[in-house]
Design goal:
Bound molecules: protoporphyrin IX containing FE, copper (II) ion
Low-confidence stretches of chain A: 20-28
Number of helices of chain A: 6
Largest sheet of chain B: 2 strands, antiparallel
Number of domains of chain A: 1
Number of strands of chain B: 2
Strand content of chain B: under 5%
Radius of gyration of chain B: 25 Å
Low-confidence stretches of chain B: 1-18, 582-592
Oligomer: heterodimer
CATH architecture of chain A: Up-down Bundle
Distance between the termini of chain B: 60 Å
Largest sheet of chain A: none
Distance between the termini of chain A: 40 Å
């Protein structure tokens, strides 16, 4: 592994050597990508701990399963489409086709909002049928998972809006395509998180 | 805008004056300014925590004397003291302060890679501090549930601060974590992406390694606190039962049902143990650099030091339950955690050996930073050894929740990192301000702090072995505790006041030397690392001149045989190194 090789180098030897190292730092994509991956690691830790907690809490006798609203299936489909739209936006970004990119971004954003709206409907349905957060931890976890996941998507939309804003500023427009690719990665990741959460909620 | 009347321009100049001040010192995106902002805020709130500890010591040393300290206030003081010291002072100062200042300078970068996010990180941190402090002023006061915030009692009526206090505390923690994450993503990405040419990972000074790995620990462990905080908040505000069991509270059945306080403890300590290394690793790193610089010797076993940092980072995630031996866990579980706890002591001890071996036959300069280094090594060994005691289930059972634990963690997590922070400030103050801190005041500060803190914490181990319980407002008539324990408590309190007073010398020194200290020049300690090679001192915005530095060697070329000076800066190419007189016979293998 290259990391192992790197950290077994003997730094006190080879003074003067400069080869094999990256040169001056250029801000932009590589830093953005590293930052995003680190952030995804944080998000992973966050949701993973929630799931472990969920699983542990489930073992206690007062746990009562709740009937997952059917609309979640439709919401899932919408989120998949949103992720797809972002992928297409990212493909367009790589070819520097700005107008196509803008359209797909818009589509992705709207689909995501529809998803969040759909989750809200699911909440309403649950409340209407008496599944209050206070009455059972299973309910509380449901609201918590869906809410926090939606919050992460909302953060993504905010970032996407910033990108849209930048698209209209000629001098910053060139930075947008690489950020769109990062955006798509973030969306795919949140889709994955949702699929895992959804499976967990369905099966328990 | 092509034409502006001169009078208007003048006017505009005036309008801009304060604005430049604001963008320079307030809404600054310069990592150095953000570092200072972080540090000053952390020190300020740390002073609040210091005062709270004095309140506690007044009560403990002289019970029944001060009517203004009620039991409730005592618990509030305990809680806020602990939380502020661990999170808002140590974590913020070591990562937000030192991390911000040192990473770009030591890696040869112009700034952090996401400066705007870095600025935001500080302001959200400040907000979290303000929210925390606001809890002093709400009705009911701050929470008094202990810094570990264990449910159920932390949100049950009867505990101080169950209304606003605990809610503000949890909100403040959530904000802190958001701030830390923004900063942490910056530190990690900067280390990975913005090092200058020639700066391989293994040429990085150990300070950067320590801060880097600690930041990764923080990024992965703080989510555990976030999860806990969010769920506890819901339990307390809307009445869910994540952690709250069915119970009788003040004679009435509460509405809670079925939750698990033990689950909370697991989550809390899954964050809590890595947290102690989030504080310790940067301290380890800084100590390594200080010891090499002031002993004019390369650090002993650089690679082992890096590996130990990495090993500690990994293992620190699988030892958490050693804080829960008394929670009634499965003995096999306890056995597992006792084993991992003893295993983590190995890389930790290895680092201590390497510091001592670096000192061994070094050209030790007993500068003020070096004094703090030596003080740290002593103190850390002391605390580490008591940690080995507590790591064993059978020994921990009677000692848990006594003053022995207080002694242990104050030695290892209170005094040790604070000594490092002091040493580091004496070491880097010249770079930050261009002036030396006063040496005489520094020495007085060191010796008084060292002996003072030992007078406080060493006796606590003894009190703990006597069985003196922790977190008690007063002992009352407890038959197994002799009266002499009370005398000892009074002595400890006097020492605590002495130590607190001595810190005023340090604060005075900080302000006094800012304008009156001896000018330091760019590299007063003849150090090799990059931050000492900046074209200006203090470094200007952007750190380096038109060109970024190029690194030719590792960070520890001290006393290299054959070289004229006893240090070779990292930026010096081999062909530029001045050699000693020709009369020198380089039989021991000249520099390469
Ligand atoms: C050789 C290494 C160490 C070992 C074996 C060790 C072991 C332990 C154990 C078993 C406890 C729990 C005691 C109890 O509650 O009954 C404890 C408490 C504690 N330790 Fe350590 N420790 C070590 C190093 C450290 C370090 C390096 C730090 C911080 C920099 C630290 C900070 C703490 C703190 C803050 C607590 C108290 C937490 C609380 O209950 O409020 N320890 N240690
Ligand atoms: Cu621990």
């Amino acid at each position: 592994m290259s990391l192992l090789r790197k950290i077994s180098a003997k730094p006190w030897e080879h003074a003067g050597e400069l080869e094999g190292l990256h040169g001056a730092f250029t801000p932009g994509q590589s830093a953005g990508r590293t930052g995003l991956y680190m952030f995804l690691a944080v998000v992973t830790s966050f949701f993973l701990l929630f799931m472990v907690t969920y699983y542990t809490r489930m073992q206690f006798p007062d746990w009562e399963m709740l009937a997952d609203p059917k609309i979640l299936w439709a919401n899932t489909a919408v989120l998949i489409l949103a992720s797809l739209a972002l992928q297409l936006a990212s493909n367009a970004a790589k070819k520097h086709e700005f107008s196509r990119m803008r359209n797909w971004l818009l589509a992705g954003g709207i689909l995501t909002l529809v998803f969040i709206g759909g989750q809200w409907v699911a909440w309403e349905q649950l409340v209407a049928s008496g599944y209050y957060a206070r009455s059972n931890p299973a309910n509380a976890f449901f609201y918590l998972f869906t809410g926090l996941h939606a919050l992460h998507l909302a953060g993504g939309i905010w970032f996407m809006a910033l990108l849209g804003f930048r698209l209209n500023q000629p001098n910053r427009r060139e930075q947008v395509p690489s950020s769109v690719t990062l955006c798509a990665t973030y969306w795919h990741y949140l889709l994955l998180v949702w699929l895992v959460l959804f499976t967990l909620l369905l099966r328990t | 805008m092509s034409y502006v009347a001169i009078a208007d321009r003048d006017h505009e100049q005036h309008m801009h004056d304060p604005q430049t001040f604001i963008t320079k010192y307030i809404w600054s995106q310069d990592h150095k300014v953000i570092a200072i902002q972080y540090s000053l805020t952390a020190i300020a709130v740390g002073l609040v925590a210091l005062v709270l500890s004095l309140v506690m010591r007044l009560q403990l040393g002289f019970p029944d004397t001060f009517s203004f300290i009620s039991p409730d206030e005592y618990y509030q003081a305990i809680t806020m003291h602990g939380m502020i010291m661990v999170i808002y002072l140590l974590t913020a100062l070591l990562l937000g302060g030192f991390g911000n200042y040192l990473i770009p300078l030591m890696c040869g970068a112009r700034d952090m890679v996401f400066p705007f996010m870095n600025m935001l990180s500080y302001w959200v941190y400040l907000l979290s501090v303000l929210v925390l402090c606001a809890s002093f002023f709400v009705t009911g006061g701050p929470t008094g549930g202990g810094w570990t915030l264990y449910p159920p009692q932390v949100i049950l009526p009867g505990t101080p601060g169950v209304g606003g206090g605990i809610v503000l505390m949890l909100l403040s923690l959530v904000l802190f974590i958001v701030a830390f994450t923004m900063g942490g993503l910056n530190y990690v990405t900067t280390v990975l992406q913005a090092r200058c040419r020639g700066m391989t990972l293994m040429r990085m000074p150990l300070s950067v390694w320590g801060i880097f790995v600690a930041t990764i620990l923080g990024l992965l462990a703080f989510p555990a606190l976030l999860v806990t905080g969010i769920m506890l908040l819901l339990d307390s505000v809307i009445g869910t039962s994540f952690f709250m069991p069915a119970l009788l509270s003040m004679g009435e059945a509460s509405e809670y049902d079925g939750g698990s306080p033990i689950l909370f403890q697991h989550l809390f300590w899954f964050f809590g143990h890595p947290e102690v290394y989030i504080v310790a690793l940067p301290a380890f790193g800084v100590i390594s650099d200080l010891v090499a610089t002031h002993a004019r010797k390369n650090i002993f076993g650089y690679r082992m030091m890096v590996w130990a940092i990495l090993a500690i980072g990994v293992i620190s995630f699988i030892v958490w339950a050693h804080h829960m031996y008394v929670s009634g866990m499965n003995p096999y579980f306890g056995f597992f955690f006792a084993t991992t706890t003893l295993i983590i002591a190995i890389p930790t001890a290895l680092k201590v050996y390497n510091w001592v071996l670096t000192l061994w036959r070094g050209d030790i300069h007993l500068t003020v930073p070096m004094l703090f280094v030596i003080g740290f090594i002593f103190t850390f060994i002391n605390g580490g050894i008591t940690g080995l005691f507590l790591g064993n289930v059978a020994v921990d059972m009677p000692l848990s929740d006594t003053y022995f634990v207080i002694g242990h963690f104050h030695m290892v997590m209170g005094v040790s990192p604070i000594l490092v922070i002091f040493g580091a400030i004496y070491h880097w103050y010249p770079k930050i301000t261009g002036r030396m801190l006063n040496d005489r005041m520094g020495r007085i500060h060191f010796w008084a702090t060292l002996f003072g803190t030992y007078a406080i914490y060493l006796p606590m181990h003894y009190l703990g072995i006597l069985g003196l319980p922790r977190r008690y407002y007063a002992m009352g008539d407890t038959s197994f505790i002799p009266d002499s324990a009370q005398a000892m408590n009074a002595g400890i309190s006097i020492a605590a006041f002495f130590v607190a007073a001595v810190q005023l010398i340090f604060l005075f020194n900080l302000f006094w030397s800012r304008t009156r200290g001896a000018p330091s020049g760019g590299n007063p300690w003849n150090a090799t690392t990059l931050e000492w090679q900046t074209p200006q001192t203090p470094p200007v915005h952007g750190n380096w001149g038109p060109d970024l530095p190029v690194v030719y060697r590792w960070a520890y070329d001290y006393s290299v045989p054959g070289a004229k000076n006893d240090f070779i800066p990292q930026t010096m190419a081999p062909e530029d190194v001045p050699t000693s007189d020709d009369s020198y016979d380089g039989s021991e293998g000249a520099h390469s």
